[in-house]
Design goal:
14-stranded parallel β-sheet, mainly beta, Jelly Rolls, 749 residues, 6 helices, 60 strands
Length: 749
Amino acid sequence: MRLPPAVPVRLAPALLLGLALAAGDAAAQARPLERGMVITTSTRIRPGTYRLPADASLDSALIVVRGEGIVLDLTGVRLEGTAPEADPDAAQGVAIRVEGGRDVTILGVTLRGYRFGVLARGTRGLTVAGTDLSYGWKPRLFSLVGHESLVDWLSFHQNEQREWMRFGAALYLEDVRGGTIRDNRAEQGMNGLLMTRTDSVVVRDNVFAFNSGLGIGLYRSSDNVILRNRLDYDVRGYSHGWYRRGQDSAGLLMFEQCQRNLVAWNSVTHSGDGLFLWAGQQTMDSGQGGANDNAFVGNDFSFAPTNGIEATFSRNRFLGNRVEGNDHGLWGGYSYESVVAGNCFARNRIAIAIEHGQDNVIRRNGFRGDTTALYLWADPIEPSDWGYPKHRDTRSRNYTVADNAFAGHRTTWRVTQTEAFDTTANRVRASDAAYAAGIGPAADGSAAPGDTLAGSVCVPTASLDGMDAPLARRLDAVAGAGPRAIPAAPWSRRERAAIVVDEWGPYDWRSPKLWPVDTMTDAVRLRTLGPAGRWRVVAMDGVRGVSTRTGRIGDTLLVRVDPAREHEWRLTLEYVGAATVSPRGVRAPAGAPVRFTYGTRTVRTDWRVRYVAWTDTLLDPARAAGNLERILAGRALLERREPRLDVQWYRPRLGLPPQRWALDATATVDVPDGVHTIRVISDDAATVWVDGREVVARREPGGSEVMYAPLAPGRHEVRVAYYQLGGWAELRVELVPGAPRSTGSAGPH
């Protein structure tokens, strides 16, 4: 699969000239950039590359801006906080901080290697334009091709105490009122733009793509306009053919009382969720408020591993959007008084799923090729720890489903435990095999069984049913003379299989890459990905042979690994073709040879594993020292030999009980010369001993956590004791070269 190179973001020369002239004589003389400089008047910084690491403290910055009516012109300035070869989680600190002020403009900077690119607090009238803030901080990911790691799950649900600051961002706005964020690029970090308690800002014509967290995230932020942005491939937690979890990444996230925002003509594809909207904890506790009265018009929410749109406990309008190729097109749990009109739903597993919804209108949409088009229901029992159903009527009721066109579904609609379900003039294609055969629940899609459809039924149009005069006027005002269309994104219409996530996040297809088609065996299939070009094998270590030694990008190689080297092997190819940009921003011109590799490096292990279980809660290991050893001394349920100690599941395997089980694993290992480390991921609790000495200890149960201990060369006896009280289980123990210390994404997981 090939994708074309990135489409550059360019700031209009007239805009740059106008803003520069507005700076007046004070900006005429360019100043060299100095660490810690404080800008209080309009300033132009001398162009050039400045290699300036930032302090780790978020209370300092390389540049601080204070005052009113300031233009900071950084056109031609490149700030580098880390070298390209450094791991992305080595980035730290703040590059530019705007402290309060009014009518502040930041122009033209390119920067990389910081936890925050631009951090603004309390500013009235902020403009950030024409910048490239790519290659900032992001955490290492621990999910594998064959299964995910719970360490990678994100939680943006709390931000009252600035919890979002843990995650970093290219742009972070807090308590900002008014302004424009336009023509910026932020890729290959964790988050593009985060906005907390920020209102009345126009975010337009930006590229916040290929990030491992969010493209744009809003928290308690209202009355903003998000227009014509590319928010694609902001994703983690996906391995094609293996799992599609998303891990709460999203192209656009709106949490906690975000209201009256207008989101129009954005490309929001191939992200964990396209849109992830949640009313917030305040609403969950009180039943009041919500992320209400937002309008989503003419966007593309396609090819998400999970939900194209997730919008819950709130009232909103979804008009004229494309929603294709997702698990759920729209998941609208507890949505009420919402309008879903003029959208195109296609090839989703379930196009629209709403539990406990009320007074919703689903009108003039096209549905084509979804497994189930519409699923509406109520659960007999709601969570007892939610305040929401204690304060509100949460029956599933009062739906209007009218003038929709359905074609090619196994189930057109399924409606259970729902009152007042009104259907009018819906059309079901006569060739719909499920209904021609009379298959499906009795309440499914029988409103107008005689109607037939001709041609395509899936062209999104912003339906007049949901486009009232105030919204139409607002769209006219913000669109101006600009196009009323989703910006062209060369990667956005690819199938979901174009999502590839490695240990540093989503792959952007701008450089060659080897990627496994399946999990590791002694014959590994690797596919060549990237721009068009040719490749050849230049080195093999621990590899007996390959199916072919030359070829074109898109080929799949069969690699025969030496059985004695399954723990340590590497294949290196050389690419020649188009110009490339590496995932860390290193550029190579067309025709230049670029090497790329795939393999694995660990210390060989052969684990002897005993699995045991207990039922007496008084024996729970956290209750008393010595309980775990008493449990492990009991009768084994199962004994196995394992080449890797790698457990991750929700429903236990191997005949183990769903709760209160443990394992005791031992291995004799020969560690070669050099620096090596034991890396442990554990949920619930694990302890590791090397030659009888405790080196890793987590005795209390909890979510997945990454822990490390150094390992000296030579022969060692390694023992691992692990227990799981219930729920998700994860244990991975690896002996790896070097001294890695990445702890992954901030919890809770």
